[in-house]
Prior knowledge:
With 628 residues, the protein is mainly alpha-helical. The chain has helices at residues 3-7, 27-49, 62-84, 88-94, 101-107, 124-152, 163-183, 188-192, 194-197, 206-224, 242-245, 249-277, 290-322, 335-369, 376-390, 408-417, 419-433, 442-465, 467-473, 477-507, 513-540, 554-584. 64% of the residues lie in helices and 0% in strands.
Amino acid sequence: MSTLDKAHTSSRPVPNPKRSLITRLHMGTGVVVGIIFAAxxxxxxxxxxxxxxxxxxxxxxxxxxxxxxxxxxxxWSIGFMAGIGAFIGPWRWLIGxxxxxxxxxxxxxxGQGTKRYFKYCTDHKVVGIQYLVGVMTLLGVGGTMAxxxxxxxxxxxxxxxxxxxxxxxxxxxxxTMIIAMIIVATGPFGNYVMxxxxxxxxxAFPRLNALSWxxxxxxxxxxxxxxxxxxxxxxxxxxxxxSIQAGPGMNAFIATIIIFAVSTAVAGANITTTVxxxxxxxxxxNRVPIFVIGSTISVALAIPAFPTFMVSMIMTALDRTYxxxxxxxxxxxxxxxxxxxxxxxxxxxxxxxxIPGVAALMExxxxxxxxxxxxxxxxxxxxxxxxxxxILVWAHHMYMAGWAPSLNGPFMVTTxxxxxxxxxxxxxxxxxxxxxxxxMKLPMLSVFAFIWDFMIxxxxxxxxxxxxxxxxxxxxxxxxxxxxxxxxxxALTGAIGGLAYWYPxxxxxxxxxxxxxxxxxxxxxxxxVLFFGMFMAGAExxxxxxxxxxxxxxxxxxxxxxxxxxxxxxxxxxxxxxIHSWTKGKIAPMNPWGAKTLEWTVPYPVPLTNFxxxxxxxxDPYGYGKGK
Length: 628
């Protein structure tokens, strides 16, 4: 039992560790200290880089300006973490005065109500809610930028936004949504629900758990600062050498990716360790809920994949600040080096996003069909096969780049092979539903939507994996539609299903049912209209990432824009349902769906240590219909 477990008892009064600095630190102090750190580093670097002869007439060079901006951005992140109290525990340990029991309970937010959501809180349930609100915020911001893009493309010659703003919107929308989608399932559900599902008191490293969220939080203002620094003109891929030549807004992109990579590494290590080391007695690997397996495989894939993107950003930063020439052919570098580093991350990243959403749906199907999960082992084999093959397909994004054309054939084969483990996932879902009588609640609707959307995303992906077809479709709107059918149509649909399913456990209330249904149909119908329009435009030859287009593509773009407004309206309705239900929704029973996994055996609000006594597992969590 951890120190937190030993310290906490139900009869203990609310801790108040007087004179401790921990009690005085919160999100507000973090912002203040972060701004001070950033201002001091900005001032110090700027003054040290300016010449001593004439600081007014001799302004900073572009390289020096990049040094100053990057230094200030990283200083903001470090300062915020210091100001919110993230470093107190390690510092106290170093000086031999570790935290007291009362301070540990205070960090866990014991008895602090809503205030704990604005502090460095180690309770995994609080971190899960913080991630949920953060994901909704990122999706809202990214979705708003998408609506601005589609409004501009509603007709040829649209001037809703300028070309410069449009280019920045494309890049900022892309990277905002990618960050949101990476954490959309593992962030909220992997933190709130997963430890309870395996019968654990807490995460393996509670302080690192809080660290992962707040480090990510510091990246959001950094990314937003790009708006005031000239934007991101490169798209979310930030290809070199274009990114080397880009304006100061590119520094915000670089700092965001590096900070985000640190957050995902910390979170991934914590989730993996928790699942491996903290499962309750009797929970053998063949009794672990499938969502836990999927989330673990997802973060295990992210741990080796994401550092390559981080390294590419560090090298880009060095090229922009110290003229190192990693990606400059005139200095012996190569843009292909960046492409390889990026896509070694970029394609596994798709499955880091996808697998947890699919696993959440596999958690839902047995409950709403009242049948055991069809071939639990096949589901694991499917996840493992996708994870393994996903690291062998990255160069299919580079067919048209001219890099190693002799490898196009092998990469085409590995890309097409990934449809085999993907097919296993379809087999498990359909096999579970076969001859069943689904309970058609909102979580179950997401299962059917996923099967339709991901089937389209998968089939169009096979087209793009074929070199001759890709030579025509590469760089077109067809690719954009395929990409969104895979990520939004599949992963986000799975995450929304998970939200509808676990909402009663996370909030104690039922999600507004009618609003949920209206949102579902508006989003799904609008989504298909939106991206089928893009398939049409791409098949006709319209390139993506263009601010204007020929009259030939008028109808397909108008169709897409109409679909986009339907999706946007549906998501606003879902947001209303989430917020309204949180405070005024129907009080949820402890187990409204009649599920068999452990999270439904604890009351709401969930106790600080989840269980008064750890459960003992004697069977798998999908034993519906047994003994009848």
